[in-house]
Design goal:
The chain is mostly helical. It is built from 14 helices and six strands. Helix 10 crosses helix 11. Bound molecules: zinc ion (ZN). Zinc ion binds next to loops.
Length: about 375
Amino acid sequence: MPKKSVAGAANGNAGPPVESSQPELKKEPGQPKKRRKTVYGVVESSAAGPKSSKRTRRARGRLSTFLANMPVDVLLEIMTHLTPKDLLNLSRTTKAFRNILLRPFSAGVWRASFSQVRGLPKCPEDLCEPQYANYMFGDTCDSCGDPVSNEDVYWTFRKRLCVRCPKTLISSQVEEPVPGFLSLLHTPGLGTGYTSYKASYYMPEVAQMQEKLQQLSKDDWELFMKERVEYVKRTSEHARACSMWVEYGWLRRAGENKELREKRFRSIKARLSDLGWATELQHCDLQLSKHKLVRQPRALTERIWNNIRDPLVSWIAESRANRLANRRRIVVSRLYFTYVKELQPSSEAWPTLAVVYASSEFKASGLVNASAPDLKAAL
Ligand SMILES: [Zn+2]
């Protein structure tokens, strides 16, 4: 694909098919010039392409070329199957994708994506879909851009903030210049982190309301207050629903993960039993359930099993060897002390059990690997 398409996107002309602002490239005489809509929203020639440099072609890569030549309607259809988080990330990869996904004609793509998320509250009317996706699935601080998690969202403020930023942006020290002023401001409810247990306010919002107060006449202010109170009530209810959705999501995911882990554990046990380790599994059931290759919330596929089988077989073989070694030590200890008790008092020092173990005679005797009955007979 010619470089001009990317340039067209960068100029903000991408999205629906838009003519590139770049000059047309020369075509061979008699060669038909067929135009079509592409991801980058350009109309390009399907005839032999421009002589772009080898370096450019290499950098572009096969996948990007494939995507870039894909018709927009096909791409939009594919995008409807992505999660909101994926769409959000995709919109940040290139200007071309950004220009597609942030245009109003892509609202249906976002809505289709939202519908795949169980229990997700509806996108409020005062936010567009990409804004809502960022509100619900973003992962950076809205103030400084640092990485943050969903636990750091101030739902009523519609802000995702890092640990540091609330210290300057949120305060409980707000004067009420006119009666009812504080009712125009959002305050976090329970479960919203930093300001959970006291009335606190988002200072940029406070400044915005103070500015309104300065600008509006008394009558207009009264009217504005009525509408604003309704707005705060409506958005606070939605914020509560969002907060609950996140809380519920944690619980639900924890339950689902537990179920997946147990199912994986059962499958692995069945497969190890088939390989002849059924008896040993009775001894190491608990340890196996805690093994890092077992304790994962992922279904056991053939591919995964082929990858983890050998390490697990090695682990269970080692577990068996250790168990038998411990058992031998116990049996040998008992027999040794029983034997020593039966000896007549003597001034000679008897070798300790550790010395017996370490002795070359003991190692050469073959008792190190003997089974418990054999040991008993030998001693
Ligand atoms: Zn921050």
